[in-house]
Every structure is written in C-alpha cells, then in structure tokens.
TrEMBL record:
<keyword id="KW-0963">Cytoplasm</keyword>
<dbReference type="GO" id="GO:0005829">
    <property type="term" value="C:cytosol"/>
</dbReference>
<comment type="function">
    <text>Catalyzes the attachment of proline to tRNA(Pro) in a two-step reaction: proline is first activated by ATP to form Pro-AMP and then transferred to the acceptor end of tRNA(Pro). As ProRS can inadvertently accommodate and process non-cognate amino acids such as alanine and cysteine, to avoid such errors it has two additional distinct editing activities against alanine. One activity is designated as 'pretransfer' editing and involves the tRNA(Pro)-independent hydrolysis of activated Ala-AMP.</text>
</comment>
<dbReference type="GO" id="GO:0005524">
    <property type="term" value="F:ATP binding"/>
</dbReference>
<keyword id="KW-0067">ATP-binding</keyword>
<dbReference type="InterPro" id="IPR050062">
    <property type="entry name" value="Pro-tRNA_synthetase"/>
</dbReference>
<dbReference type="Pfam" id="PF04073">
    <property type="entry name" value="tRNA_edit"/>
</dbReference>
<dbReference type="InterPro" id="IPR036754">
    <property type="entry name" value="YbaK/aa-tRNA-synt-asso_dom_sf"/>
</dbReference>
<dbReference type="InterPro" id="IPR002314">
    <property type="entry name" value="aa-tRNA-synt_IIb"/>
</dbReference>
<feature type="domain" description="Aminoacyl-transfer RNA synthetases class-II family profile">
    <location>
        <begin position="33"/>
        <end position="463"/>
    </location>
</feature>
<dbReference type="GO" id="GO:0004827">
    <property type="term" value="F:proline-tRNA ligase activity"/>
</dbReference>
<dbReference type="InterPro" id="IPR033730">
    <property type="entry name" value="ProRS_core_prok"/>
</dbReference>
<dbReference type="InterPro" id="IPR004154">
    <property type="entry name" value="Anticodon-bd"/>
</dbReference>
<keyword id="KW-0648">Protein biosynthesis</keyword>
<protein>
    <recommendedName>
        <fullName>Proline--tRNA ligase</fullName>
        <ecNumber>6.1.1.15</ecNumber>
    </recommendedName>
</protein>
<dbReference type="Pfam" id="PF00587">
    <property type="entry name" value="tRNA-synt_2b"/>
</dbReference>
<dbReference type="InterPro" id="IPR036621">
    <property type="entry name" value="Anticodon-bd_dom_sf"/>
</dbReference>
C-alpha cells in the first residue's frame, strides 16, 4: 500500500483523555477513532491488524475441529429468562424493546443463543461432540468505559461453545481449546500465562484466564517461581502456617479511638502491629448482614467470599443496614453484633489479644480473642494472597504481576443445557443432558494488550504475526533515482507476497522517520541518494533498533531472510 493512498491520520500530540499506552498509540498511529465513550471506529490500519489476528484465531480453531458460524447479536430476553441470567447478569446487559414492546438485549455473550440452536437441531449422541465458534461484535454497558478498547462498551470477540455427551468428552474439548489458545498467543509473540480463574456471571465449574503480562493490566496474576501454578488474584491461594501467639489472653477492654477508622491509623496511634488487628467488612446479601473478618495486614477477597456464599454480585452493606444493626462504619466489629453471619479468615482465629471495632463511634476493643469474645459462623480462606507467600503446590515463593485478560475458557457442564433443555438420545435411546464448555478471546483487547507489551517512547513495536505491514519503505528527497528505486523495491516485495507500506508522501525526512516509528512496522528500509550511489539500502529492525546496510544487488533475498528471522 502506498501511504499517499492510505487513510492513516497520525497524531503528533497525545489525546488528553487517553490514559494508557495502547489507547494513546492506537489513536496517534491512526488505528482507530472514538465515536462515543467506549465505542470506536477502526480505521484501515487498525482493521488490518484485527483481521490478521482473526486469521490466526481461525486457523487454530479450525485446526482444533471447531466450526465457524454467525449468531445474531440481537437476542430475545425470554432466552435469558429461561437460563435465569436476565436479572443476574446485572446492569452491564444492554437492554432494549422493539416497536411491539418485546424485550431484547444486545449480546455480551451467546450461551443462550447457541444452546437454543443446538437443542433444536441435535438429537443423537452420534452428532456429538460439536464445537461452534464465531467472531462478532459484543456489547456491555460498562459503568465506566476506560483504557480505550481494554474496557469498552462495544468490542470484537471470538466465542466458541462445545457440546459433549459426558464429562470425559467435556474435559477433552476443554483441553483441546486450552491448547489452541496457547498456540494462538504463542504465534502472536505474546508473553502470557494461563491462570486459574473465577467463572463469574458465565457460571460453570472450572475456568482458566489467559493473561498478557503488562503494567496496564487491571488484573493481578499470582504465579509460582518454582512450578507452573498461576491464578488470578481473585482465586489465588497460598500456604500459610496458622500459629497461635504464645501469650496469655488478657481481659477485654474498650478504649477511645477518636477518628481512627483505618488500620494504618490504628497501627500508628496504638503502636500495635497490623497482624493484631481484626479488620471487619460488612456486606449485605438479600437483606442479611455478612461480616467478613481478616487480619489487619490483609484484604478481604470479594470473589472468594462470594463463591463461599454462592453469590455472583456481592454488595457492600447499605446505610440502612448499619443503622439496623446499631453499628458504625469504621468502627464495626464482631463483638455483640447480632443478626449477622460472621465469616472469619483462618488467620483471624490465631490472633491473641487483638484489636477490633466496638460498634460505637470512636471506640475499639483491645485484648480481643476470637471464640472467647465472639463466635464465628464459618472459618474459611477469604483473604487476598501476598507476594512472597508459599505456593500451595510446591512451597516456592509466589510473585504478583499485573495482567490483561485476553481470553478465558470455561467448563459450563450442564448449567445452560439443563436450563434450556438441550438433550440428546444416548446409545440406549435414553435422554441425556449435554455437557457444555465455552471459550472466549477478546480480539480488539488482544490488539491493545499487544501494544501494551510491545512499545517504546517512539511508538508501537509490532510482533511480526500482527504487524499491519512487515516492511515500510522510506524514500528520502525528490531524487528521481530514489523514487524509481523505491517503487521498484515496493513492486518486487509486493509480488513476493510481502505486506509493504511505501511512504511516498512529499514530507520531510523527520516526519517520515517519526511516523515510521509510531506505526511500528518490523522492518524499515530507507532509500537515499547517497546510499544508492554506494550500492546500499539502509535497514532498521524496529524491535531491536539494529541498523545495517543491505546490498543493492541482493536486496530481495536479504530482505526475505531478515523477515524470516523476525519475531
């Protein structure tokens, strides 16, 4: 493609509302433009990258035995009622009515629709297993869209759905897709980790997220330095020895703590370590108070707690509940707090002579001892793990790093097939419920994650597999020989099947160099009058910054060789 003919409006300045690198560079390099909050138009350069990634996804999924189709984005609400998700999914579900007053939604995912399709078509075990996938625009009404396409209201996603006759078949389908995902992200040259993850509103029994490691990640990946254990912080567990302090229990006492509502303030004022504090967080589930207790040097893990309570959306307690329970925010504690379910982390139970809220403003208890001074409903692991703790599998040290979720695989089992009555006749003619799995990849999110992991101060550094163009040719000046030779190189590389961008604009050399670094093609070839006289072309590898000359007599073979060795 010749740049004079390509719609690629690059920007010199970073847009003020672009917070993360991928958002900034996708706008500056002319990959996309914002239409409204969380909604973007993909320009030719950006859409070319998207199509390259989609091709990789299709190749690997087709190789795995999955079949592509296209499901409707507009979904009747009664299907979501049938599955039980219409209310549970929450306000992120884009809802609308047609002219007849019938309720619909714009699909954030397609479990209901694909299950409805299969239940009407598949009758016998001989038609299974079946794996269907699509690449389509999805919709989620994010409360605060941000970070460009990392958290948008409209995005492109690949979603696949497997149907099997039994759990062994589901396990095989799940592992097949897990392996395909690994191949996809490896081909893209990404540093990623599959991690154990929560199933969230999708549901099911087991799940793994595929995390691209990058500073802009909203998730935290917990991994072991010694073995292959990795999990999202939401689910990560660590091995900690619960040892009760060897000291005599003292008499419970109430003290004045004016304005001391945080653990840090209490530690500083009372000169008592955070691991002696009992942090209490009050939640509300269907009008019932849930008091979660963790040691003061830890945070409550909402996902672990929600899973323990079998609640998808765990909510903080309302002001009304605080009044009803006769307690005060910042001073809430388990002692004499009636009509609540108290769930304590296992580390809380080892505290001797601790500090806890007294349920009165500006008051705390000291010398608090669990079980003596209050009883708990349940003891469980409800804390977030911390870096340096021991791996539950091998005892190695755990590390924490930010990650961007680009894909997730789920074992749905019979959650949707049972609710929507997706059955088949087994070899004995008996009706059985299908076992299901679902598998998603964020297409546009992966593009952004790639940029987060591959950039420098000058612009994008595309991995070879996703680069919109592999080679960019920069003719410098208006010399006829330079223009002619640049056109010749462009034609020969194009004829050889190489994606080439020719910057034939009548711009200064500095503008061309800056735009080339911004766009980030893996190989830059500069054609200048001086180098032509010397019988050379100047080459630069974008990723390494390595610069060298290419012999003018053998440039086609040398450029092909360089491309073959790019990563």
């Amino acid at each position: 493609m010749k740049m004079s003919q390509l719609y690629i409006p690059t920007l010199k300045e970073t847009p003020a509302d672009a917070e993360v690198i991928s958002h900034q560079l996708m706008l500056r390099a002319g990959l996309m433009r914002k239409l409204s909050s969380g909604v973007y138009t993909y320009l030719p350069l950006g859409y070319k990258v998207i199509r390259k990634f989609e091709d990789i996804v299709r190749e690997e999924l087709n190789k795995s035995g999955a079949q592509e189709l296209l499901l409707p984005a507009l979904q009747p609400a009664e299907l979501w009622e049938e599955s039980g998700r219409l209310q549970n999914y929450g306000p992120e579900l884009m809802r609308l009515k047609d002219r007849h007053g019938r309720d619909f939604c714009l699909g954030p995912t397609h479990e209901e629709v694909v299950t409805d399709l299969v239940r009407d078509e598949v009758r016998s075990y001989k038609e299974l297993p079946l794996n269907l996938y699509q690449i389509q625009t999805k919709y989620r009404d994010e409360i605060r869209p941000r970070f460009g396409v990392l958290r948008g209201r409209e995005f492109i996603m690949k979603d696949a759905y497997s149907f099997d006759i039994d759990k062994d078949g589901l396990e095989e389908s799940y592992q097949n897709m897990y392996n395909a995902y690994c191949r996809i992200f490896e081909r893209c040259g990404l540093e990623f980790r599959p991690v154990e993850a929560d199933t969230g509103t999708i549901g099911g029994d087991n799940s793994h997220e595929f995390m691209v490691l990058a500073e802009a990640g909203e998730d935290i990946v917990v991994y072991c330095e010694e073995c292959d254990y990795a999990a999202n912080l939401e689910l990560a567990k660590s091995k900690l020895e619960v040892v009760k302090a060897d000291e005599e229990a003292k008499e419970l006492e109430i003290i004045d703590t004016p304005g001391l509502t945080t653990i840090d303030e209490l530690v500083e004022e009372l000169n008592i370590a955070a691991d002696k504090m009992i942090k209490a967080v009050l939640y509300e589930v269907e009008g019932q108070g849930i008091l979660a207790l963790v040691r003061g040097d830890y945070e409550v893990n909402d996902i672990k707690l929600g899973n323990l309570l079998d609640v998808v959306n765990l909510e903080m307690a309302s002001e009304e509940l605080y009044k009803e329970l006769n307690t005060v925010k910042g001073f809430t504690g388990a002692i004499n707090l009636d009509d609540v379910k108290i769930i304590a982390d296992e580390l809380v139970m080892s505290i001797v002579n601790g500090v806890a809220g007294a349920n009165k403003i500006d008051k705390h208890y000291v010398n608090v001892n669990p079980q003596r001074d209050f009883e708990v409903t349940e003891v469980a692991d409800i804390r977030e793990v911390k870096e340096g703790e021991e791996c539950i599998h091998c005892g190695g040290k755990l590390k924490l790093t930010p990650g961007i979720e680009v894909g997730q695989v789920f074992k749905l089992e019979t959650k949707y097939s049972e609710a929507l009555n997706a059955t088949f006749l087994d070899e004995n003619g008996k009706s059985q419920v299908m076992e299901m799995g679902c598998y998603g990849i964020g297409i546009t999110r992966t593009i952004a994650a790639t940029i987060e992991q591959n950039h420098d101060e000058y612009g994008i550094i595309w991995p070879k597999a996703l680069a919109p163009y592999l080679v960019e040719i920069l003719p410098l000046g208006n010399n006829d020989d330079v223009i002619e030779k640049s056109a010749q190189i462009y034609d020969e590389l194009t004829a050889a099947g190489i994606d080439v961008l020719l910057d034939d604009r009548k711009e200064r050399a500095g503008v061309k160099f800056n735009d080339a670094d911004l766009i980030g093609c893996p190989l830059r070839i500069t054609v200048g009058a001086r180098s032509l006289k010397e019988g050379n072309l100047e080459a630069k590898i974008r990723k390494t910054g390595e610069e060298f000359n290419i012999n003018l007599e053998e440039y086609l073979a040398q450029i092909k060789d360089i491309i073959d060795n790019l990563s």
